[in-house]
């Protein structure tokens, strides 16, 4: 799923100029992350996220925090340190995500979902009538208990999902203790997403209805997923009766 960006303004400009700036692409962010998702393994004491200032002329402040699955800002059972720091022009730094004592209260038989947030704060300008925009990046943060740490050569758990057809729709079943993010759905390996599909995330040991019609996915549905590294492999399903299982996986 794509990162979410929010824009904040501090001063006013003529309407035309304001509209032009707000239309600027999210890729213009000065403070950038080195990944699209964070995995904190229960066997590790912390996970370091590298941040970099893409602006070669100006220093920026980087503000970091964590939210729970409902979007509430938290400091327990995970905390981002330091909560704010200065990153010099063209330089790199790190934010550490550390567990707190409250981590002991989390389920140890499945993953837990959080969100890592990073907001850039531009330096104050002395120019009059200048609009300053701060971009915020929000990515998924998964806490993975020590007993669920995945071996490098293990079969991807995403390949264990199944599809169940009910009428003209499919339900995606996730029998694993991990989250699964489905990023694409088509009737062919190189095909376009079917009408009505929206990326979805299936929680551990749960099911979600797949957007779009079952008929539009054809006889061998193809679903893409996002792995721990941001890759997007595609799973080709074989169906018998109303149940479909992964039969082949190809690069995304």
UniProtKB/TrEMBL annotation:
Q: Does the keyword Signal apply?
A: yes
The record's comment on protein family reads: Belongs to the periplasmic pilus chaperone family.
List the taxonomic lineage. Bacteria, Pseudomonadati, Pseudomonadota, Gammaproteobacteria, Enterobacterales
What is the protein name stated in its UniProt record? Fimbria/pilus periplasmic chaperone
GO CC annotation terms, alphabetical: outer membrane-bounded periplasmic space
Q: How far does the signal peptide extend, from start to end residue?
A: 1-29
**Signal found in the keyword field:** yes
**What GO biological process terms are annotated to this protein in UniProt?**
cell wall organization
Source domain of life: Bacteria
Domain named Pili assembly chaperone N-terminal is located at: 31-148
Q: Which residue range or ranges hold the Pili assembly chaperone C-terminal domain?
A: 172-232
- Alphabetized SUPFAM superfamilies for the sequence: PapD-like, Periplasmic chaperone C-domain
Task: Report keywords, A-Z.
Answer: Chaperone, Fimbrium biogenesis, Immunoglobulin domain, Periplasm, Signal
Subcellular location(s) of the protein: Periplasm
């Amino acid at each position: 799923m794509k990162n979410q960006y929010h824009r904040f303004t501090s001063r006013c400009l003529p309407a035309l100029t304001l509209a032009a700036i707000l239309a600027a692409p999210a890729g213009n962010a000065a403070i950038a992350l080195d990944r699209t998702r964070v995995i904190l393994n229960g066997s590790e004491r912390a996970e370091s996220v590298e941040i970099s200032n893409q602006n070669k002329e100006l220093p920026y402040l980087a503000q970091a925090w964590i939210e729970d699955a409902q979007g509430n800002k938290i400091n327990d059972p995970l905390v981002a340190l330091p909560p704010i720091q200065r990153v010099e022009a063209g330089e790199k730094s790190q934010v550490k995500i550390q567990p707190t004592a409250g981590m002991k209260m989390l389920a140890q038989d499945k993953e837990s979902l959080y969100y890592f947030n990073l907001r850039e704060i531009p330096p104050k300008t002395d120019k009059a009538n200048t609009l300053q925009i701060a971009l915020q990046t929000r990515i998924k943060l998964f806490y993975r208990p020590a007993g669920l740490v995945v071996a490098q050569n293990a079969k991807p758990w995403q390949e264990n999902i199944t599809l169940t057809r009910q009428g003209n729709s499919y339900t995606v079943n996730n029998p694993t203790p991990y989250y699964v993010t489905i990023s694409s759905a088509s009737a062919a390996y190189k095909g376009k997403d079917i009408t009505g599909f929206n990326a979805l995330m299936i929680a551990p040991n749960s099911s979600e209805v797949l957007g779009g019609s079952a008929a539009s996915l054809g006889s061998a549905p193809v679903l893409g997923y996002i792995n721990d590294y941001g890759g997007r492999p595609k799973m080709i399903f074989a169906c018998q009766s109303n149940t479909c299982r992964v039969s082949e996986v190809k690069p995304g």
